[in-house]
Design goal:
alpha/beta; Rossmann fold; 2 domains; seven-stranded mixed sheet; four-stranded antiparallel sheet; 7 helices
């Protein structure tokens, strides 16, 4: 291997030269990674150099399967409510009007094309134990304008998303839901309970589910399934094995 060029969020951060290793590990723990790119420079026996480039978004960002789903299920005038913001908010805004609920101030107002709702995490009394979730009083005034889709991608797992179930009556009018991270048992359980309480149909893909009040055309579901499998084929064995 002649060289590795490593970029994070579009910025070149490291050049590694003349490595004899077939693979390398590079620590990016100090970065908020949205996208990363590695350029491999390989010199063959004839001293010719070829280049291979690998570009990926991190697992913190929503996958292409969800982006494709929103594109197919939206029109230019659709309004989407996103629970949990990030780089994906910017990507979603190419397909619809995005309002993003976020509890972390450093992620609020990150992208001008996204409307943000800052809602702190508070504790709610519930049985059998208290649950932490966004301050619903910060969100409720925005629900009056109406949303066509909702994407559940927050709060992060260390806080948990079960608190949403305490407030489903506030969101009942939204006809299409996308629940991310259903590889995790808790998040799949949330999707199941929303379906039961709101009487919705669930279309489950390998890492997200779509919930709808009315059947979605089979051709659209088929296209989403294809895109979802493409995303799965690009995942590392280590990542997939976490959930097997």
């Amino acid at each position: 291997m002649y060289a590795y060029y490593i970029s994070v969020n579009g910025e070149l951060i490291e050049k590694i030269w003349y490595s004899e290793k077939k693979s390398i590990v590079y620590d990016i723990s100090g970065y908020e990674v949205n996208t990363y790119e590695v350029n491999f420079f390989v010199r063959d026996k004839e001293n010719q150099i070829s280049i291979k480039t690998v570009r990926r978004r991190s697992h913190w960002s929503i996958c292409d399967g969800i982006l494709y789903s929103v594109a197919l299920l939206s029109t230019d005038v659709n309004n989407l409510l996103e629970l949990g913001s990030g780089f994906g908010s910017k990507l979603l805004s190419k397909h619809c009007n995005v309002t993003s609920v976020e509890h972390n101030p450093k992620f609020v107002q990150m992208y001008p094309e996204v409307r943000y709702i800052f809602a702190e995490i508070i504790e709610y009394d519930s049985c059998p134990s208290p649950l932490r979730w966004y301050d619903i009083d910060r969100i409720s005034p925005y629900l009056e304008t109406g949303f066509d889709l909702i994407l559940v991608d927050g709060p992060p797992s260390e806080i948990g998303r079960e608190g949403l179930l305490l407030h489903l009556d506030r969101f009942h009018s939204i006809p299409i839901w996308i629940i991310d991270d259903v590889l995790r048992e808790k998040d799949q359980n949330i999707a199941d309970k929303i379906c039961l309480k709101l009487g919705m149909i669930q279309y489950k893909f390998w890492n997200f589910s779509i919930l709808s009040k009315v059947p979605i055309d089979n051709s659209i579901i088929g296209e989403i399934h294809k895109k979802s499998l493409q995303v799965l084929s690009n995942q590392s064995k280590e990542y997939v094995n976490r959930y097997c």
